[in-house]
Amino acid sequence: MALAVRTKYEFFGPPGATAIVFGLPVLLWTLFFGCNDVSGCPAPALLSPRDLTWAKLKSEIPWPENGVRGFVSWEVTFWTFAYYFLSLVLHRVMPAQEVVGTKLRDSGRPLTYRFNAFNASVVQLIACAFGTYLQGADFVVWKFMTDNYLQLLTTNILLAYAISIWVYAKSFSVKPGNPELRELAQGGHTGNVIYDFYIGRELNPRVTWPFFGEIDVKTFLEMRPGLTGWILLNCANIAKQYRNYGFVSDSILFTTAVQAYYVLEGQYMETGILTMMDITTDGLGFMLTFGDIAWLPFLYSTQTRYLSTYPVTLGPAGLAIVSAVFATGLYIFRSSNSQKNLFRRDPNHPSVKNLSYIQTKRGTRLLTAGWWGMSRHINYFGDWLQASPFSLPTGIAGYMILPAGSAVAEAGATMVDGRQVIQGAARGWGMLFTYLYVVYFAVLLIHREGRDDVACSEKYGEDWEKYKKAVKYKILPFMPLRQNHAQDPRPSPIGQPMLLYQLPKVTRKVEYNDPESMMRTYSDKATDSGNTVGRAFCANCGSPVRGDSSKFPGFLIVPVGCLDGSDADKADLRPTAEYFCLSKAAWLPGLEGTEKVDLGPAMNYS
Questions:
Q1: How confident is residue 178, by pLDDT bands cut at 50, 70 and 90?
Q2: Which of 116, 219, 412, 581 is the Cys-Cys partner for 530 at CB 3.0 to 4.6 Å?
Q3: How many CB atoms lie under 10 A from the CB of residue 558?
Q4: How far apart are CA 381 and CA 498, in angstroms?
Q5: Confidence of residue 494 (pLDDT cuts 50, 70, 90)
Q6: pLDDT in tens, 348-357
Q7: In the predicted model, what is the mean pLDDT of residues 45-62?
């Protein structure tokens, strides 16, 4: 009798997939109606749930006159398709970088990708800048986007469904053996229709059209229409704020600027996506399609949509704070990724050659020092930190819109048509809308870390367990203690914690000479190791021995080998020494300049 194979589901399996497929579009519509330019953010009726009626709520939101049929229009559908057609044309005609991706699992052969998203975005933004120069805030593109926001949102949602259905149906034509370099995603063909539709069945669906050539659908959607559309929506909201008030606030300019930088830098470094889980592991289904062309541009632009109706002035101090947060996050994100990529490409580079690592049986080296000694996904922390200023300029969000001529005691903003915008009872409640992105992004990164952990555990086996013992923290970085008698959070080779003692801020030559312990000794001649702490143990049995130095109080003396048992003659005595650099916050490998020292009659320090 055959044993049943248990399918490994993510996102709470088919029930979770069903909830996401049908629930997230509703959430986007709810965000649009709930935070609006008709009555407030949130709509005042939502603040009094006991008295809430559909008729009352409908009067306070931009509900179409013809009801649900007004969610779409032929005009908006036409121009949406024209936008995607333009993206395809630019993909074909703009100068591009041809890049070979990672090898496919089944065939062992890679696919070739065409990247020029950055060039395409620059062309579109220059064209819109020229249009703004000619027509100002009334530029036809900006007015069209803000006046038809609901219809644009709905059209992209429906397009996401259509593409997802198409790639799902197309996936059943994948032939065994991968003769066409097509294969199914490992987790995307469980046999459950709704789950496979959501998670993505085919790994790398492609289509070949006349003139356009071969198009990788997943990378096209990942890097083009949604990301560029995010910037365009933000620019449209800036124009809307100017039409509403006759000025542009520093908060909306800052938010648009940092988000545009985030997008354009990502597109400029477009080749980096080839090693991301989205490309190497996940199939193309509703999850990625909806996320790329509907969720990303319309959720991520919520902050500028809010600021277009309620302008917030940050001032020099506020700008300095949010800029510092963004710069810090950006530095952590880019520096950590650069360090990892450099280590992979050139492990002997001076900036990374002294970083410790775990050599896996697969041949891969896992960094355990530098940025990657702080946490396993320090880049995720940087990514979230640099994204938090997207929401911070909205402050303690929430506003109410009062008719022109209303007598109000609270200071607020007055639109050019006379309407008053104050915070009132809505203060704080608007954060449910403007900070949703930051919360969602944190959940996304935490979930992704979990997926990475499972994938790496399957990939590296026991080496991954060793790595997790060496790097204890997942995302939030561990800040090394710089006080005496700090306990090393990592277990020693025999499972007991080892003690660290801080040395004076000079590198000392240390010699361990104890023939009775049959110990081999080394002298540290390095001059750039910083403030170091010595750690030594027997490579054969992993036994550490601790003592104290009368000459250098607080220094860790580790004469190893004396715990190798009574049969010392047969013991393979290869003691090792490691040094922890407090300035670099990392365990260092064997330092250059160390040399073997002959055994002497006693311990000697110089």
A1: low
A2: 581
A3: 20
A4: 28
A5: very low
A6: 888 888 888 8
A7: 92
Task: Classify the C-alpha dihedral 242-245-251-255 as positive or negative.
Answer: negative
Say what the pTM is. Answer: 0.76
Q: What spatial distance separates the first Cα and last Cα of the chain, rounded to whole Å?
A: 73
For 341, other C-beta atoms within 10 Å of its C-beta total 12
Structural domain span for residue 217? 72-313
Q: What is the mean pLDDT of residues 555-575?
A: 36
pLDDT of 472 reads: 86
Q: Are 518 and 568 in contact (CB under 8 A)?
A: yes
Tell me whether residue 321 is in a domain. no
580: left (phi over 0), alpha (psi -120 to 50) or beta: beta
Output the six-digit token pair for 472. 């204890």
Distance CA 107, CA 125 (A): 40
Overall number of domains in the chain: 2
Q: Decide which of 68 and 181 is more confident.
A: 68
Q: Is the pLDDT of residue 44 over 80?
A: yes
Percentage of the chain exceeding pLDDT 70: 77
Burial of 95 (0-12, 13-18, 19+ CB in 10 A): exposed
- Dig out the tokens for 450 from the structure: 């979990």
Helix (H, G, I), strand (E, B) or coil at 489: strand
**406-415 long-range contacts, Cβ below 8 Å, gap at least 24?**
413/245, 413/310, 413/311, 414/245, 415/244, 415/245
Tell me the pairing of strands 40-41 and 420-422.
unpaired
Domain end call among 281, 313, 345: 313
Which of 294, 313, 332 represents a domain boundary (last residue)? 313
Q: Give the DSSP H/E element, type plus range, for residue 88.
A: helix 74-93
Query: Quick one: how far is CA 272 from the chain centroid?
Result: 13
Whole-number pLDDT of residue 564: 34
Strands 486-491 and 497-500: antiparallel
CB 163 within 8 A of CB 287: no
Per-residue model confidence (pLDDT) at position 45: 93
Helix axes 74-93, 225-245, angle to 10 degrees: 130
Paired with 581 in beta bridges are 532, 586
Is position 383 within any domain? no
Residue 557 has pLDDT above 50, yes or no: no
Percent of the residues in the chain that have a pLDDT greater than 90, as a whole number: 53
Distance CA(348)–CA(221), nearest Å, equals 37
Task: For residue 484, count CB atoms less than 10 angstroms from its CB and return exposed for 0-12, middle for 13-18, buried for 19 or more.
Answer: exposed
Question: pLDDT tens, 238-248?
Answer: 999 999 999 99
In a domain, 15, yes or no: no
Does 564 fall in a domain? yes
Kindly report which listed range (105-119, 304-318, 453-467, 548-562) carries the lowest average pLDDT score.
548-562
Element (H, E) at 288: helix 286-290
Taking Cα atoms as reference points, which of 600, 573, 577, 597 lies closest to residue 587? Answer: 577
494-521 burial, b for 16+ CB within 10 Å, e for fewer? eeeebebbbbeeebeebbbbbeebbbbb
